[in-house]
Amino acid sequence: xxxxxxxxxxxxxxxxxxxxxxxxxxxxxxxxxxxxxxxxxxxxxxxxxxxxxxxxxxxxxxxxxxxxxxxxxxxxxxxxxxxxxxxxxxxxxxxxxxxxxxxxxxxxxxxxxxxxxxxxxxxxxxxxxxxxxxxxxxxxxxxxxxxxxxxxxxxxxxxxxxxxxxxxxxxxxxxxxxxxxxxxxxxxxxxxxxxxxxxxxxxxxxxxxxxxxxxxxxxxxxxxxxxxxxxxxxxxxxxxxxxxxxxxxxxxxxxxxxxxxxxxxxxxxxxxxxxxxxxxxxxxxxxxxxxxxxxxxxxxxxxxxxxxxxxxxxxxxxxxxxxxxxxxxxxxxxxxxxxxxxxxxxxxxxxxxxxxxxxxxxxxxxxxxxxxxxxxxxxxxxxxxxxxxxxxxxxxxxx
Length: 399
Ligand SMILES: Cc1ncc(COP(=O)(O)O)c(C=O)c1O
Hints:
- The chain has 14 helices and 12 strands.
- It is α/β, with parallel strands linked by helices and about 400 residues long.
- It is globular.
């Protein structure tokens, strides 16, 4: 049976919004005069997310990029600007938020087994001006190590985790996103679950939670949930209408009740879906020819909505064959994995970043040219995994 015939036979994501989610939305909209702007469902979704993750506070926003921006803005308010250590393999908004908030991004290369920052290289880049490490857990892999966590704790350097591509993954049995001072999640359609567009920030820090709530909504003091904090502003600014005190020059990155209704519906099946993704990913790696493709990923605790296909060698011919085969089979893919590969090659950074020579980043350079990401979604037919691996394994020699 040829399972690859329909157009776009294997997309990056499919069926991430199901009838049940749509019915929840329709049910909500069927009420008389339903409230659509941020309200009770946003609050409930935040509470349910905090419970699922195992943190004290969550703040729902309109995208993962907004989560990045608010997190770094909050860090600026509490710690002031300086350097932030970031990975070159990440999404543009991780670096853009650092730049937009006036920090200097400092890059370290990645570990090929996790595609995340290499702990020793991060530690080498720490200076007296390091304000944070903003680490991305790439495509379902955990990038944390005990060594890195210990070192950051010892030096009092905050960790911010970008978990947009990895929620459900764990380190030492604990969910990613519970280790950092703050952590970011994306609910864009192609991720582990979706609110169409959406993002979340999680933190155990009471003060940051209040700042994040205000930053989300124009910097308005009334958005804080702490009466003590609100009263301190009311007393300090008696000339201002308490409803309109703007504590920070901030943003409007709120989401809506509809996105929260969808998020609450989706969260109910996240763990079940993630189990299927884990099994699929193992099957994919087990069936790939490890002489041609890198299969030695750090799988412990991983939870991947994508198959990472990375050539073992910098082999142009095999690379071209892989892309031709994926096209032929109608398998959607991204070269360079998520986010377009090495951010240091992007125009927005090239003009700023004279100091970083690409030769200093061999691991990310390899992924940029010889790494791919392919969709891994719960309804994926496992037969397709076997078939694709067979095709890929036949490439290379003798062709
Ligand atoms: C690692 C990472 N961070 C941030 C984002 C931004 O999320 P969003 O697309 O919801 O803005 C993404 C997007 O896919 C991502 O992969």
